[in-house]
Amino acid sequence: MSNFTAVFQMVRQRLIAPAIGNTARCYAVKPAAPASKKKKLGKLGPIMEKKIIPVETDANKLVNYVCGSNYLKTGQDVKIKPDAEYPDWLWSLNTERIIPLDELDPNSKQYWRRLRKLALRRNNQLSKLKKF
C-alpha cells in the first residue's frame, strides 16, 4: 500500500496541484466582458432605453372604439355608443378654456376653490423668494 500512496502523491503533485494553484492565483484577473452593447451611464446611473409604444392606425377601430381604454392583457377596448345613450350633462361640460376667476360666480364652490388654489400658488412663490 505504501507504493500505491507514493504514486498517488506524485500524480497529485504533478497534475492536480498545479491546476488548483493556477486557478487560485488568478483571482485578480478580471473576467472577459461579454461582447454585448454597453449601456451609457449618466449622472444617476444607466440611462433607460425608450420604449416604443404601438399606435393604432386602423381608421375603423379609431372611429368605433375608445383606443387604450383596456389596460388588461385580455379583453377589448370600450365600444363607442350612440350619443343618445350618454347623459345630458356630458355635452354641457366646458372643454374650450379655463374660465377666469372674474367670470365665476362668487357664491359658487368652484370660485372659492379656484381662489384658494391661486392663493396657495402665490404663497409658494413668495416663500421661494425668502433667503431663510
UniProtKB/TrEMBL annotation:
Keywords: Mitochondrion, Ribonucleoprotein, Ribosomal protein, Transit peptide. One of its GO terms (molecular function) is structural constituent of ribosome. It holds the Pfam family Ribosomal_L37. GO terms for cellular component: mitochondrial large ribosomal subunit. InterPro entries: Ribosomal_mL54. It is found in: Mitochondrion. Belongs to the mitochondrion-specific ribosomal protein mL54 family. This is Large ribosomal subunit protein mL54. It comes from Drosophila suzukii.
